[in-house]
Write a structure and sequence with these properties.
The protein is an all-alpha fold and 125 residues long. 74% of the residues lie in helices and 0% in strands. The radius of gyration is 17 Å and the shape is elongated. The relative contact order is 0.17. InterPro entries: DUF2784 (IPR021218). It comes from Dyella acidisoli.
Length: 125
Amino acid sequence: MLRAKAMYVSLADAVLAVHLGFILFACLGALLALKWRRVLWLQIPAAAWGIYVEASGTICPLTSIENYFRVRAGHAAYEGDCLGHYLTATIYPDGLTRNIQFALGALVLILNLSVYAWLLHKRRT
C-alpha cells in the first residue's frame, strides 16, 4: 500500500514537472527558434494552447492528471513533497484571477509575436 502511494506521489510530481516545462516552453520556447528554426513547429501550437487555456479558463489536462495521481496517493490535490509544493505555487499562485489569466495569455502572445517578428526581420535582412 505504501509503495503504491509513493508511486502515485512520484507520478503526480512528474506530471507537475512536465506541466511547468510545458508552460516555460509555451512562454519562452520562441527563443529556442533563434538557434533551431524547427522548434517553431512545436512551439507555436504550444503557445496557442497556453493562450487558449488562459483566455478561456479551461483546465489543462495535465492538471487533471496530476490531481488524479495525488488523490490516488491519498493526498489532497496540490499537496505533497517539496517538489510539488514549490512547483504548484509557481503554476497556480494564490489570488489568480480571470483578469490575471487574461494578462498572462496576452504576455505569452506578445512575447512570442515579438520573437517571431524579430526572426522574420532577421531573415529578410
